[in-house]
């Protein structure tokens, strides 16, 4: 299958759930605003740029250590409750992304099989047949994959549950997050979706991606994970 | 006060470059028959090549500077495009020194610093003198430990090195025997098609290919196995010749190698996982090997360079492993019996496939033989399944997750919860049918390519869910403990500073 195995993001298909979500997001944005405009003691100089940097700062100089000692470590003041959320499913549009990707793969395979099929076997139907097969499988998987996909921003870790043929559940402790990307491929852009990619230092599944997010949600998730990672006060990741 | 590489390295590197270019020269000189070069032309090319290489290396040497500061290791290098690199010392995972025969003749040593990021070696000094290499290693260790000079400005004395392990000739012999790498046999697939025709025609009277195969195959097989055994055995023996492992404060230090000397440090504070491996031969003899993984190496790179103990009696290896990570007695839980059934089915399918393939070859190609002999594989399937199942196991210890697997080469991985990166629980369609799942506990170790993560294969699905939660919970617990510990230390530091000491005060009680 051509589609990335990546996990998708869970925007609930269920329209009833959406307002809920939105409310959640605005809450986060509100939090954001306070942090940006009037730096609270919590989030001040250790502007949450990068986890690694933060760690380095944390460990490095004595002055910093002193600061962290007198006032309990700043990140601890982040309101974790506001950042976590219930289990989410992906945005339903992600199915179209996957179906389109399946179609593209189908065309590639169809052409690859169709050319020898046409010229050698003199059977013009080979190409279309292969296309239909690949596309059919891909499209079916897309539907099931969407149904299976869910993610949850928990208190200590990001939890992903996904996979049709091989079902995979991944736990990514925030403490281990190295950085978070929000990316948008061409097909995703066409459908107005984005993917959040979470990187850890692990040797396998070093990157965990959540597809099928609206761009705002991807940004929001990126921001939340960033804050949670900082709040987790990771020491040496490796 | 930045330093340069050893001046001798210019000569060595020039020779090295010239050596590489030499192939092209040979090709140019002798390869083209029409435009064959005169001898003097060839000589000119060689001399010119050497000169150019020498000149380039001279500039390289001139423009390569490094400096060890209290916090970082800085390198400024590059002939055409300049690069400045600063490596924070606390991020350094490993410091490796190596020198081959030629370099030893020149008195040169290659120094490599590894950090966890990226796939390349972060700093590679080619080459410095042996004394300088030693100095760098000592200084980096010292700076990382954070001990500064004593009050009167004298450098702190080099801490005691405790010899943990030295390989004995007997162990080397065992190593040579057990490290027969069967993977070398895969060469057979390459060599056999080349040799096969000459074999069948070579034995004049044996026109019957079956007869030739029956007689020739064992001879060939024995020959190949013996050669492979000799090569891989010799390789490991020279590689681990004179292996010694020492513990210096919180670092392990090893030295090894007959022709090419390797020596390196493994910081204990960066250990990600331990892997105990025993292949089928070593198990018979009661030997095992231990590797200590840090995140410093890219997957698949530095084959065996982190091997803490190449071979030793099992008990000794376990004792050493415990001195690195103190884990208690391990009692393995096995996957349920239905997992074994799964392997029976799988191996039977493979055997049947082999039968079909043999039949197809017999039927559709000119090569006829007793294809039905392939049925002999079928009874092996349950045996193989049982052996696989028997060697699987996992255990949750107080501070470690342990997983074991593999019959031919059994590997036991010990992962401290504190080092867990992600926890992955997965179940394929086939596993779900039998209500099984696999749990992978991923670390930042360098196991990588061989898929040697700590994983509990084919365990009960519900148990897998339970384990996933448990491992995560214990990771958080370990993190909490570490955090509390860190705060306590900081507090101690602060108090010390407040009571009139200064930041760099040597602190004997700093633990």
What's this, in brief?
The complex is a heterodimer of chains A (about 240) and B (about 500). Chain A is built from 8 helices and 6 strands; from the N terminus they run ααααααββββαββα. Chain A has about 240 residues and is α+β, with helices and mostly antiparallel strands.
What does this structure look like?
The complex is a heterodimer of chains A (238) and B (511). Chain A has helices spanning 17-37, 51-59, 62-70, 80-83, 94-119, 126-148, 186-190, 215-231, and strands at 150-153, 157-162, 167-173, 177-183, 194-200, 207-213. Chain A has eight helices and six strands; from the N terminus they run H-H-H-H-H-H-E-E-E-E-H-E-E-H. Chain A has a three-stranded antiparallel sheet. A three-stranded antiparallel sheet of chain A has the order 4-5-6. Mean pLDDT of chain A is 71; it is low at 1-76. With 238 residues, chain A is of the alpha+beta class. In chain A, a hairpin with a 3-residue loop joins strand 1 and strand 2. Chain A has a domain at 95-145. The relative contact order of chain A is 0.19. Chain A starts with 16 loop residues before the first helix and ends in a 7-residue tail after the last helix. Chain B has 511 residues and is α+β, with helices and mostly antiparallel strands. Among the domains of chain B are: 1-62, no CATH class; 181-236, no CATH class; 337-387. Chain B is built from 13 helices and 19 strands. Chain B has helices at residues 8-31, 39-62, 101-106, 130-145, 169-178, 187-202, 209-239, 280-285, 314-324, 337-364, 380-391, 429-433, 461-498, and strands spanning 65-68, 72-77, 83-88, 92-99, 108-115, 123-129, 161-166, 244-248, 251-256, 261-267, 273-279, 287-293, 307-313, 393-396, 400-405, 409-416, 422-427, 436-442, 454-460. In chain B, helix 1 (8-31) packs antiparallel against helix 2, helix 5 (169-178) runs antiparallel to helix 7 (209-239) and helix 10 runs antiparallel to helix 11. Chain A binds chain B through residues 56, 59, 62, 65-66, 68-69, 156-157, 163, 165-173, 175-176, 200-205, 208, 232-233, 235-238, and chain B through 88, 90, 93, 116, 270, 272, 294-295, 299, 420-429, 432, 440, 442-448, 451, 453, 465, 468, 472, 475-476, 479, 482-483, 486-487, 490-491, 493-494, 497, 503. Strand 3 (167-173) of chain A pairs antiparallel with strand 17 (422-427) of chain B.
């Amino acid at each position: 299958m051509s589609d990335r195995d990546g996990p998708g993001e869970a925007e609930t298909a269920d329209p009833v759930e959406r307002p809920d979500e939105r409310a959640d997001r605005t809450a986060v944005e509100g939090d954001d605003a306070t942090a940006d405009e009037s730096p609270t003691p919590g989030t001040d100089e250790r502007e949450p740029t990068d986890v690694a940097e933060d760690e380095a700062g944390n460990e490095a100089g004595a002055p910093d250590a002193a600061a962290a000692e007198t006032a309990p470590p700043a990140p601890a003041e982040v309101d974790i409750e506001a950042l976590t959320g219930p289990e989410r499913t992906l945005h339903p549009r992600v199915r179209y992304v996957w179906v389109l990707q399946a179609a593209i793969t189908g065309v590639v395979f169809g052409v690859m099989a169709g050319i020898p099929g046409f010229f050698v076997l003199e059977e013009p139907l080979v190409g279309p047949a292969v296309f239909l097969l690949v596309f059919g499988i891909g499209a079916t998987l897309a539907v099931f994959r969407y149904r299976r996909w869910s993610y949850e921003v928990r208190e200590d870790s990001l939890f992903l549950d996904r996979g049709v043929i091989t079902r995979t559940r991944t736990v990514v402790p925030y403490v281990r997050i190295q950085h978070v990307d929000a990316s948008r491929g061409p097909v995703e852009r066409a459908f107005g979706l984005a993917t959040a990619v979470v990187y850890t230092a692990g040797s396998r599944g070093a990157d965990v991606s959540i597809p099928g997010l609206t761009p705002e949600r991807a940004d929001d998730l990126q921001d939340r994970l960033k804050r949670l990672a900082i709040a987790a006060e990771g020491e040496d990741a490796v | 006060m930045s330093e340069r590489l050893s001046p001798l390295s210019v000569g060595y590197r020039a020779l090295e470059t010239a050596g590489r270019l030499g192939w092209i020269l040979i090709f140019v000189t002798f390869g083209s028959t029409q435009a064959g070069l005169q001898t003097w032309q060839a000589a000119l090319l060689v001399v010119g090549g050497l000169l150019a290489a020498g000149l380039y290396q001279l500039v390289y040497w001139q423009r390569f500077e490094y400096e060890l500061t209290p916090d970082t290791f800085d390198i400024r290098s590059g002939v055409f495009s300049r690069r400045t690199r600063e490596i924070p010392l606390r991020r350094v995972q490993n410091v490796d020194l190596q020198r081959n025969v030629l370099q030893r003749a020149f008195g040169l040593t290659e120094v490599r610093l590894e950090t966890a990021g990226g796939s390349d070696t972060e700093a590679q000094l080619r080459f410095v003198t042996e004394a300088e290499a030693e100095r760098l290693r000592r200084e980096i260790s010292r700076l990382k430990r954070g001990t500064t000079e004593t009050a009167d400005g004298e450098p702190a004395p080099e801490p005691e090195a405790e010899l943990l392990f030295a390989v004995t000739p007997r162990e080397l012999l065992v190593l040579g025997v057990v490290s027969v790498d069967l993977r070398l046999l895969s060469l057979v697939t390459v060599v056999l098609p080349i040799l096969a025709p000459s074999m069948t025609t070579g034995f004049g009277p044996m026109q019957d290919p079956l007869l030739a195969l029956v007689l020739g195959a064992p001879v060939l097989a024995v020959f190949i196995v013996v050669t492979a055994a000799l090569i891989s055995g010799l390789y490991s023996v020279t590689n681990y010749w004179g292996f010694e492992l020492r513990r210096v404060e919180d670092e392990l230090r090893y030295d090894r190698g007959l022709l090419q000397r390797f020596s390196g440090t493994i910081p204990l504070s960066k250990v990600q996982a331990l892997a105990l491996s025993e292949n089928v031969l070593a198990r018979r003899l009661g030997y095992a090997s231990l590797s200590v993984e840090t995140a410093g190496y890219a997957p698949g790179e530095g084959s065996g360079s982190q091997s803490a103990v190449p071979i030793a009696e099992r008990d000794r290896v376990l004792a050493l492993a415990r001195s690195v990570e103190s884990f208690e007695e391990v009692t393995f839980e096995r996957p349920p019996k239905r997992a074994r059934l799964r392997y029976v089915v799988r191996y039977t399918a493979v055997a049947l496939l082999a039968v079909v393939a043999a039949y197809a070859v017999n039927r559709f190609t000119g090569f006829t033989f007793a294809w039905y002999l392939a049925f002999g594989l079928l009874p092996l399937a349950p045996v193989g399944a049982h052996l696989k199942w028997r060697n699987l196991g996992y255990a949750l210890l107080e501070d470690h997750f342990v997983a074991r697997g593999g019959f031919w080469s059994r590997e036991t991985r010990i992962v401290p919860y504190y080092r867990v990166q992600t926890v992955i629980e997965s179940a394929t369609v086939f596993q779900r049918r039998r209500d099984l799942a696999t749990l992978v506990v991923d670390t930042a170790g360098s196991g990588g390519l061989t898929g040697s993560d700590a994983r509990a294969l084919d365990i009960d699905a519900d148990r897998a869910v339970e384990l996933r939660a448990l491992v995560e919970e214990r990771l958080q617990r370990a993190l909490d403990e570490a955090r509390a510990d860190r705060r306590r230390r900081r507090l101690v530091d602060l108090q010390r500073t407040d009571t009139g000491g200064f930041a760099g005060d040597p602190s004997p009680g700093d633990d």
